[in-house]
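Issue 218. Parser rejects a valid record. Input:
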Amino acid sequence: MGECPMWSNLNFTHLGFGEVVLLLFLITSVAIAGIVLFEKRSPEKTAAWILALVLLPVFGLVFYLIFGQEYRKTKMFSRRGLKNLGRFRILASRQLRKLQKKELSLPDAAKEKENIVRLLMNNSHSLLTTGNRLKILNNGYKTVNTIFEALEKAVHHIHLEYYIVEDDEVGNRLKDLLIRKSREGVEVRMIVDDVGSWGLSKRFLRELREAGVDIQSFMEVRFPRLTPRVNYRNHRKITIVDGEIGFTGGINFADRYIKGIEKIGPWRDTHLQIEGNAVACLQVIFAADWYFVKKENLKGAGYFKTQPDLKGAAMQISASGPDSDWDSIGQAFFAAITGARKDVFIVTPYLMPPPPILQALKITALGGVNVQILMPEFSDALIPKWCSFSFVEELLEAGVRIFFYQKGFIHSKLLMVDGIFCSIGTTNLDFRSLETNFEINTFIYDAVFTRQLTGYYHADLLNSREIVAAEWKKRSGLSHFKESLAHFVSPMY
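Output the parser choked on:
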C-alpha cells in the first residue's frame, strides 16, 4: 500500500523539543474539545470548557482531566448487591402505583404539591413517610450540642457521614465521644469525605480505629494518584442514632460552624432533627454509601426500624450525585419553583444556578410570584463570591428580590414555597451541588413546619439589606470585570 501524499510531505525532524510538546498539547486539546462536544453537555458548560482549552491549552487541559470528565452516564460505582436499597425502591414503586390509581391517601400539603411527590418517587425512589417529628436547629452551637446529646444515648449503633471533620476543638470532642461509645459496645461507623476532611491527622484516625470505630474515607485522593475522582465529593451530612433519630443539614464538625469566621463574623446555619419513619430513608442513603466504601451490607431490624405513624409531618428524603440516573434534587427545586403560586423563599451561601433553575426563578418572578433569595454579602471563598454576584443583576431585572446577609456568614440551604412546602439539606444553589456532588435533601409537606422555618427566614432578613437594581448597576468597573471573569468559570466551578 502506498503512503498518503499529505503525510509523506510532512517532516517533523526540524521541530525542537518545545515545539513538539506544544504540538502534542494542541492535538490533545483539540481531541478533548471534540470529546466535550460529543458528550452533549449543556451549551454553557461545553462553551466554557472549549474556551478554557483554547485560551489556556496547558492549564485548561490539566484542569479538564482532573475536574471536567462526566461520570453520571458511566456510573461511578455499582450498587448491585445492596439489598436494602432494592427493598426501598420496591416500596417506592408501590407507593407510586397507588398514587397513580388514587389509592394513596395524602396529607393536604402533599396533595397541593403532588407533582413533587410523584417526581421524587420517579427520579430517586424517595418514599413518602408521614408522622415525622421534626425540629429546626438554627445555629451551630445548638446543632452540635443536640447531636452530641443524641450520640450519648446510643445503645446499638452510631452512623455518621460528613464532608468536613476537622482536628480542632469540636472535632476532638466528637472523636472522644465516639471512642467512649465504641468501648461501651456501640457499633460506630463513620464516613468522611477524603478532600473535605483532608486535614485529619494520622493520629486522629489511628485513635478512632484503635478504639473500634470503623472510619472510612470517601473516594481517596492521593498524590501522585490524583484522578478525576477528586472532582466528585461527598457533601452529605448525616447522623443516625440507633435507627430512631437522624440529623441532616448544613453543619459539619469544625470550630468555625460554632465560632464563626475571623473578619466576617458569626456562622449562621440550619440543621434538621428527624424522628419517625423518615429515619429509615436516611439510613438507606448511609447504607448505600457504606456499601461503596466498605462493601458491607447493613441489614436487620436493628438498623431499619418501623416506628408508629404518629401525628407529624409528611416528607421525602432524596439523594443525588454522579451515581444517580437524574439530577433529582435539582429537578425537585425546579418543580417547586415553577409550581409556586404565591411565594418562593430561598437561602443559599452560593448563588450559581444552572440554566434550568435560573430560568425557573426568572419566569416565576415575571409571572407575579414573590421570589426572594437570601445570600451572604461576605463569603468564606473568593471565587464563589464573585460567581454568585455575577447572577444578581440578571435576577433583579426579572423581579427577583435579593437580600445580602450582614451579620456574619449565612450557610443555610433552604427552600420554602407557598407556606406549605419546604426543603432543608446540604445542597447549595450552584452547579457543583446540583450537578456534581453527592448531596442529600429533605422535602417536607407541612404548613405548620413551613411557617416555623419561614419565621426564621424573616428573622434573618432583619439582619440583611435588600439589593436595589439601580444601586447595583452603579458598582465599580473592577467589580463588573471580576464578576464577568467569575461568570465564565461558574459552570466549571
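Fixed in the parser; the record now loads. Residues 1-10, 224-228 have pLDDT under 50 and may be disordered.
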